[in-house]
Q: What sequence folds into this?
């Protein structure tokens, strides 16, 4: 279970992207986070696995307080958090199989990781997951030979072989055409059911959120203004989320600066996909 309490993020620029967001994600539910551009959706999802460092608040995953972990402990904890990225984050010159197996790097010794040798059971699991995502038979293709939809399936397979207890997806469909977007959302839904894990998806397209999610989180200007079953997302709720009609930002919070750098974040992204 993911439990987020009073999550606040202030970037080094002074931008307060999250004003104290609390929610839980559990079971095998599909939770879609929606909201206007700049509402803080990416920041929220990236704070969970600390690709972006939270400023304040608690993030517990299956009882472990992630914000209290040191860098080494956090790397280990990231094995439990599968991450799917908008731009796939594949290594283009590597094969589909090599990309998928990189999801197991956090489980093998440094020596094996360096030589990219994996136990037979990991390879079998990778074949299995590639079948599940509809890429059976494509394991030897290079990533740069794939379409966007196929790349995203590789990204999903890589996250799944980590055997995570939760999947996070940051705009997984926004680089894809409408048909492929549906296919990817269907795939994510199937994975949640089959693996019995929750999926938190940050998504722009409200119609996809409504079609596939069990629950909606609505962010407006860094505040969580809607948290309820998808069936409760009526026009009034959409006005609150997209126009902030009944919500005013809390300007009383003091600004705490911190020293996130782009380099830090890209290092962490690498660690998030390899568990290394
Ligand atoms: N690295 C950063 N440094 C400073 N400010 C940032 C950074 N990343 C995001 N922000 C700011 O934080 C706020 C929330 O941004 P975020 O990307 O989380 O929103 P979003 O809802 O995901 O937007 P979009 O839907 O356009 O991707 C915005 O005001 C943005 O300008």
A:
């Amino acid at each position: 279970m993911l439990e987020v309490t009073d999550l606040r993020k202030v970037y080094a620029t002074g931008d307060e992207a999250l004003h104290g967001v609390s929610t839980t994600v559990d079971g095998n539910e599909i939770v879609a986070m929606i909201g206007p551009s700049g509402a803080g959706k990416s920041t929220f999802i990236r704070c969970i696995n600390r690709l972006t460092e939270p400023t304040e608040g608690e993030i517990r995953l299956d009882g472990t307080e992630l914000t209290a972990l040191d860098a080494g402990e956090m790397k280990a904890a990231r094995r439990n958090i599968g991450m799917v990225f908008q731009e796939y984050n594949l290594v283009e010159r590597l094969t589909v199989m090599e990309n998928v197996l990189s999801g197991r790097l956090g489980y093998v010794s440094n020596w094996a990781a360096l030589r990219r040798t994996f136990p037979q059971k990991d390879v079998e699991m990778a074949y299995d997951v590639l079948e599940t995502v509809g890429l059976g038979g494509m394991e030897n293709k290079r990533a740069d030979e794939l379409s966007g939809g196929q790349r995203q399936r590789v990204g999903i397979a890589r996250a799944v072989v980590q055997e995570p207890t939760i999947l996070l997806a940051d705009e997984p469909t926004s680089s894809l055409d409408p048909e492929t977007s549906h296919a990817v959302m269907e795939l994510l839904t199937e994975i949640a059911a089959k693996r019995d894990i929750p999926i938190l998806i940050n998504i722009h397209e409200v119609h996809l959120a409504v079609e596939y999610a069990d629950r909606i989180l609505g962010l407006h200007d860094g505040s969580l203004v809607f948290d309820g079953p998808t069936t409760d997302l009526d026009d009034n709720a959409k006005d609150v989320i997209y126009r902030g009609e009944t919500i005013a930002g809390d300007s009383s919070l003091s600004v705490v600066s911190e020293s996130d750098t782009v380099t830090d974040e890209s290092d962490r992204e690498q660690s998030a996909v390899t568990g290394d």
Notes: The first helix runs from residue 41 to 48. The two ends are 23 Å apart (CA to CA). The domain at 2-268 is CATH 3.40.50.300 (Rossmann fold).
